[in-house]
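Request: How about a record?
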Amino acid sequence: MPLGYLAAKGHDWLMTNKRALFFFVLSGIGLVTAWYYNGIAVMKAQDYLAAWFGSEVDMVLSLDLTIVAIAGSAFMIFEAKRQGMKRVWLYLLLSGVTAMAATFPFFLAMRELKLVKTASR
């Protein structure tokens, strides 16, 4: 569709794709950093539980990230259902293999693309 048509219909196609690109970039950074630092931790045989819950500061950060991950997961499930996005469970499953820092921005990018597709109908 020509951009003039989309602009006339009130859709900012270009800005939406920039948002999707932003989320794809964040997802890539989340994936690379998670794999890099997890690789180092595994090679050094570091204890994840001791690192996550070793001190009060660790507890604050760990519980903060856990609550954000739960809220993000719930948002992904609810929003996927609302937008008619399929296989949201795959994002959640992959977050255990990669990181929520990779799968949540990836979900947001895919959501942006879905919103553009829905708006152009």
In short: Residues 13-43 form the longest helix (31 residues). Residues 1-8 have pLDDT under 50 and may be disordered.
